[in-house]
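Lab notebook, design round three. We kept the backbone fixed and only want residue identities now. Task for the bench partner: fill in a sequence for the structure below.
Input structure tokens:
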């Protein structure tokens, strides 16, 4: 069963929680404007029969707000049967952290990340990839829009390094999106903080 909740906040799922809890298994796609609240993530995590989840975060305001939202932490209390997770971040400040024991059966992870946000978060946009015990496939789209070279390279290096030390040696695919825009805008530019080392 596929349930779509496009352009609704995660908190609105409360109204559908009883219906969703009665399903034997289902896939869910939800698209959110702006920040994904901790409450909303907890609602999704509490759905025991959820097998596939797509979460899209969108910010339709022009430009960079400069607001740093809390990192979206996935803890071990939920998502016990989830096999596929697609996290789509489009022009909003968001980062992920997988805590030890998170999503224990997850096999496929697909990420769409904004490279321009790489240095806004200590440790980068994705932490704890090694904590996904069942991981077999990682598919990452690196959105180069409004990014500079070191942001794109740092994000790609972080993902490759995390996948490289994962005990399952998951298959990894990394793609650059809007690379033609990135290539024309990013030459010679850097937004790397002074305390963020340059990899060799």
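Proposed sequence:
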């Amino acid at each position: 069963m596929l349930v779509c909740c496009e352009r609704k906040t995660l908190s609105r799922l409360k109204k559908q929680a009883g219906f969703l809890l009665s399903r034997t298994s289902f896939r869910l796609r939800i698209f959110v404007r702006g920040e994904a609240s901790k409450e909303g993530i907890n609602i999704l995590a509490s759905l025991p029969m959820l097998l596939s989840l797509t979460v899209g975060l969108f910010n339709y305001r022009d430009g960079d707000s400069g607001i740093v939202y809390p990192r979206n932490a996935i803890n071990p209390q939920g998502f016990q049967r989830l096999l596929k997770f697609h996290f789509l971040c489009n022009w909003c400040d968001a980062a992920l952290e997988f805590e030890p024991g998170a999503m224990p059966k997850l096999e496929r992870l697909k990420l769409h990340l904004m490279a321009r946000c790489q240095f806004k978060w200590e440790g980068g946009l994705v932490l704890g990839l090694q904590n996904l015990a069942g991981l077999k496939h990682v598919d990452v789209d690196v959105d180069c829009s409004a990014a500079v070279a070191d942001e794109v390279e740092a994000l790609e290096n972080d993902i490759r390094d995390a996948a490289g030390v994962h005990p399952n040696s998951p298959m990894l695919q990394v793609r650059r999106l809007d690379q033609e825009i990135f290539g024309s805008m990013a030459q010679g530019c850097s937004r790397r903080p002074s305390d963020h080392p340059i990899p060799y």
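Keep this in mind before ordering anything: The longest strand covers residues 50-58.
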